[in-house]
């Protein structure tokens, strides 16, 4: 399979980097994959932060003017504060109704400003009208109200100008692009790309990288509407591993059910959105059944897990809780490091290549549990019970999983591990001479999220030695359940159950 890594045999130095053979891509695919691409920013998170900024700025201006002018004269009246907060919430609702919370709108100066000024004016007219009918007009300071209107508008205009420059800068960097590959290098693919290109302008976030096809004959075009064919379906996994891909869009008609299912069986392991274009299908569903890529109707097949605010929450959980745990276990780690050093010669820490998010290779840190001259950085031989390679201290720290504690450095400082997630396996781990991805269908679907120090499989007893097919299948099964049902509370539950699972010490040698 395309992710099966091959490492050069007999590494004399365990710290020497592994030589990995990777699936070859076409020159056209390599030209795209080798371009430096920055990390994407989520439009959902951006619009959420803009809403928060609007609330803080509007409420801050109103309260500051009230405390600086009205309260100094008449004393603090909480009714004013409540009215300011109500006006702020009404403003956010009005901005939402005016479609001001869209990344495309943030890029436009004139359209954004006219909508914002209209919505802001409407809120104040609404407040004045409500005050009049409630017979409170004489109790509201006109100086404060006018100052709030003018200063608040000025602050919002400055904020939106700054936001406009930021969004345009991110767009130039490619952080707002939805990097898309098209499946189907035929007439349907051409029609789809033309439909996407017709709506391409400065505000479009779709960037077509190229086309892939499962055929390699006269029916498969070399270029579709100017987009090059980058390879066959089997190449997509390697291509998505080398560069950022956000969306896979099928241009095949729904009638090609067998071909689509065969391709989906290979592509569903990717951490990307997968959609089926409906632009050429004669069968039409209700409009709400579709999601849209620009104006092109699509049917959702798979969605990338843990995105947008979920991703933000998980990262905060990892960094904050992981940092607290690291501080708490620092004395234990110091004692383990001393014991490892005194027990046998060699370094305290052991570094190993493992699978990370989207099959990337990451360096994972552990306390050394084997004799240094018998270290196995590729994990080509599974550690078994009473394994002579394991030191005396190593047996204890492996059984109690204390050897995993340095992975907190990966979580807190490097960010390539989570506290909770599918356990990262070494890239050369095998089951009866077969790599894990060859032994279990859908194995790489575990890598649709970042791996973790502990996980749902581990607290359910599936940890330690993998010596039969059931053990790796069960791990994959539990990992996929975790991915589909993730929540912060689920992470917290797994984290709290982990010490009990470790005390049982089952299957760990």
From TrEMBL:
GO molecular function, one term: undecaprenyl-phosphate glucose phosphotransferase activity
GO biological process, one term: polysaccharide biosynthetic process
Transmembrane regions listed in the UniProt entry: 44-68, 80-98, 119-137, 143-163, 320-340
InterPro entries assigned: Bact_transf, EPS_sugar_tfrase, Undecaprenyl-P_gluc_Ptfrase
Entry keyword set: Exopolysaccharide synthesis, Membrane, Transferase, Transmembrane, Transmembrane helix
Range of residues in the leader sequence: none
Compartment list: Membrane
Domain annotation Bacterial sugar transferase: ranges: 314-503
Main localisation: membrane
Membrane topology: Multi-pass membrane protein
Record-listed E.C. numbers: 2.7.8.31
GO cellular component: membrane
Protein family: Belongs to the bacterial sugar transferase family.
Name listed for the protein in its UniProt record: Undecaprenyl-phosphate glucose phosphotransferase
């Amino acid at each position: 399979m395309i992710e099966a890594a091959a490492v050069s045999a007999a590494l004399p130095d365990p710290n020497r980097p592994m030589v990995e053979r990777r699936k070859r891509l076409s020159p056209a695919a390599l030209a795209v994959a080798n371009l430096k691409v920055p990390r994407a920013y989520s439009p959902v998170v951006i619009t959420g932060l803009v809403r928060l900024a609007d609330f803080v700025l509007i409420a801050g201006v109103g309260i500051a003017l009230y405390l600086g002018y009205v309260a100094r004269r008449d004393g603090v009246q909480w009714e004013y504060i409540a009215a300011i907060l109500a006006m702020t919430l009404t403003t956010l609702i009005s901005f939402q109704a005016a479609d001001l919370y869209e990344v495309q709108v943030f890029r436009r100066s004139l359209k954004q400003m006219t909508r914002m000024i209209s919505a802001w004016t409407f809120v104040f007219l609404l407040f004045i009208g409500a005050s009049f009918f409630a017979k409170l007009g004489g109790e509201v300071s006109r100086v404060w109200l006018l100052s709030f209107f003018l200063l608040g508008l000025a602050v919002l205009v400055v904020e939106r100008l700054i936001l406009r420059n930021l969004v345009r800068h991110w767009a130039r960097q490619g952080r707002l692009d939805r990097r898309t590959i098209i499946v189907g290098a035929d007439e349907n693919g051409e029609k789809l790309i033309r439909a996407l290109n017709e709506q391409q302008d400065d505000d479009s976030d779709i960037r077509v990288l190229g086309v892939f096809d499962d055929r390699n004959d006269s029916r498969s075009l070399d270029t579709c509407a100017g987009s090059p064919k980058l390879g066959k379906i089997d190449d997509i996994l390697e291509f998505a591993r080398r560069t950022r891909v956000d969306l896979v869009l099928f241009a095949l008609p729904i009638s090609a059910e067998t071909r689509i299912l065969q391709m989906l069986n290979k592509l569903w392991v990717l951490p990307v959105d997968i959609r089926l274009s409906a632009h050429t299908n004669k069968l039409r569903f209700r409009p709400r059944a579709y999601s849209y890529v620009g104006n092109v109707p699509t049917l959702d097949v798979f969605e990338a897990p843990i995105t947008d605010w979920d991703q933000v929450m998980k990262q905060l959980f990892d960094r904050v809780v992981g940092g607290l745990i690291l501080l708490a276990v620092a004395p234990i780690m110091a004692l383990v490091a001393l014991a490892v050093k005194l027990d046998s010669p060699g370094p305290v820490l052991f570094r190993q290549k493992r699978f990370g998010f989207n099959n990337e290779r990451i360096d994972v840190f552990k306390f050394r549990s084997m004799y240094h001259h018998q270290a196995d950085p590729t994990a080509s031989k599974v550690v078994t019970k009473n394994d002579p390679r394991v030191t005396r201290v190593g047996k204890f720290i492996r059984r109690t999983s204390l050897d995993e504690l340095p992975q907190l450095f990966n979580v807190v400082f490097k960010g390539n591990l989570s506290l909770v997630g599918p356990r990262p396996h070494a890239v050369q781990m095998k089951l009866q001479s077969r790599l894990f991805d060859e032994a279990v269908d859908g194995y790489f679907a575990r890598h649709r999220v970042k791996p973790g120090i502990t996980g749902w499989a581990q607290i359910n007893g599936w940890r330690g030695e993998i010596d039969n097919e059931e053990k790796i299948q069960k791990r994959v099964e539990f990992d996929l359940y975790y991915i589909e049902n993730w929540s912060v509370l689920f992470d917290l539950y797994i984290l709290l159950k982990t010490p009990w699972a470790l005390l049982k010490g089952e299957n760990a040698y």
